[in-house]
């Protein structure tokens, strides 16, 4: 596994819109403040042309333009890290234009989540380059920075190797009033051990992302799962998964498909984030739906972790070796 160099003051951070662009004035204000915050901390920031543009579907630009602008940042020797500005729905349109060989030859951190799984997953499983499943650039625009944001920068700088679960999280999305809001945490964090275990410890190499996205990547040329889980079978594979908008039938179907493909054969455990939108017509809890598919694998399964759409969230270095611990409703992610 190739790990990009940790970033440091004086480095350049690239910002691009791999999926949705930002037209909303308050969101633009937030991103511009994030850029200012990085500059105040000694970083340079390079923004691509598509960050503040959008078409009628919400895409920042065409797939070709998004791919080309991303490639420019990858090939730019001064850029040490690339942030996505947002998720969306159509990142896959840029994949055919992404220069994956350049990513191997110029490894640098890429960070985003949700639809950005579409890019993170092949970077990790096909290019064998680590990438970060974590907050977008906009979170760095809050005033003042809260601990999760400080941690996120610390992971990229190599100063944070251990992340502990937060006390509270956002139960739903919130509209901005100033553009500088922090996390509107209103629910107590409570990690859940799938079989009621007192304590779970899972070690292995992290891989995964947003299930909504992984579902359509399966079996395409951008899916390197089989080679990844074979190469790192001695480490064990820790699947880190979360969903954006799935009902129970869809969730079960996609997990079944991945299981039948053999993706979980070297799994040492699963860590599920908090689902943003989950629907069921038969009042089947999320945990029960997952356990109906994965329960017979006889590996530990954690639910409601600090990963994904209901922030704040951990910065998960996909491709890294780590240990995840869950006890008494609290959790820890520690890199090896």
Write the layout of secondary structure elements.
Layout: E1 12-16, H1 25-40, E2 44-47, H2 63-75, E3 79-84, H3 100-105, E4 109-112, H4 117-125, E5 131-133, H5 147-157, E6 162-164, E7 168-169, E8 187-188, E9 192-193, E10 199-210, H6 211-217, H7 225-231, E11 237-242, E12 245-247, H8 248-260, E13 267-273, E14 277-279, H9 286-294, E15 301-305, E16 316-318, E17 321-327, E18 330-335
Report what the structure shows.
This protein is of the alpha/beta class. The chain folds into 2 domains: 12-160, Rossmann fold (3-Layer(aba) Sandwich), CATH 3.40.50.10740; 168-335, LD-carboxypeptidase A C-terminal domain-like (Glucose Oxidase, domain 1, 3-Layer(bba) Sandwich), CATH 3.50.30.60. It has helices spanning 25-40, 63-75, 100-105, 117-125, 147-157, 211-217, 225-231, 248-260, 286-294, and strands spanning 12-16, 44-47, 79-84, 109-112, 131-133, 162-164, 168-169, 187-188, 192-193, 199-210, 237-242, 245-247, 267-273, 277-279, 301-305, 316-318, 321-327, 330-335. It has an 8-stranded mixed β-sheet.
Short description:
This is LD-carboxypeptidase. By secondary structure, the chain is of the alpha/beta class.
């Amino acid at each position: 596994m190739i790990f990009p160099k940790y970033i440091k003051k004086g480095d350049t951070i690239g910002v691009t819109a791999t999926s949705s662009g930002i037209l909303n004035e308050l969101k633009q204000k937030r991103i511009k403040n994030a850029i200012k915050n990085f500059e105040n901390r000694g970083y340079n920031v390079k923004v691509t042309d598509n960050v503040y543009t959008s078409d009628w579907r919400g895409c920042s630009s065409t797939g070709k333009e998004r791919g080309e602008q991303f490639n420019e940042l990858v090939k730019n020797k001064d850029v040490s890290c690339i942030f996505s500005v947002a998720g969306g729905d159509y990142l896959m349109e840029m994949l055919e234009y992404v220069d994956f060989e350049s990513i191997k030859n110029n490894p640098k951190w890429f960070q985003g989540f949700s639809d950005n799984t579409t890019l993170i997953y092949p970077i990790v499983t096909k290019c064998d380059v680590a990438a970060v499943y974590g907050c977008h650039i906009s979170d760095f625009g809050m005033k003042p920075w809260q601990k999760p944001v400080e941690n996120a920068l610390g992971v990229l700088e190599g100063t944070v190797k251990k992340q502990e679960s937060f006390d509270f999280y956002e139960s739903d999305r919130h509209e901005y009033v100033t553009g500088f809001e922090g996390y509107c945490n209103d629910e107590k964090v409570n990690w859940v051990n799938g079989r009621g275990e007192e304590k779970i410890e899972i070690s292995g190499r992290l891989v995964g992302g947003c299930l909504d996205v992984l579902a359509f990547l399966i079996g395409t040329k951008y899916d390197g799962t089989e080679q990844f889980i074979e190469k790192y079978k001695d480490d064990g594979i820790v699947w880190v998964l979360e969903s954006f908008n799935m009902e129970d039938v869809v969730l079960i179907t996609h997990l079944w498909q991945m299981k039948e493909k053999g993706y979980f054969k070297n799994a040492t455990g699963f860590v599920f984030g908090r689902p943003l939108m989950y629907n069921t017509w038969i009042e089947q809890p999320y945990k029960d739906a997952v356990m109906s598919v994965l329960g017979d694998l006889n590996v530990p399964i954690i639910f409601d972790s600090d990963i994904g759409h209901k922030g704040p969230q951990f910065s998960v270095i996909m491709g890294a070796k780590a240990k995840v611990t869950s006890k008494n409703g609290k959790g820890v992610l520690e890199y090896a």
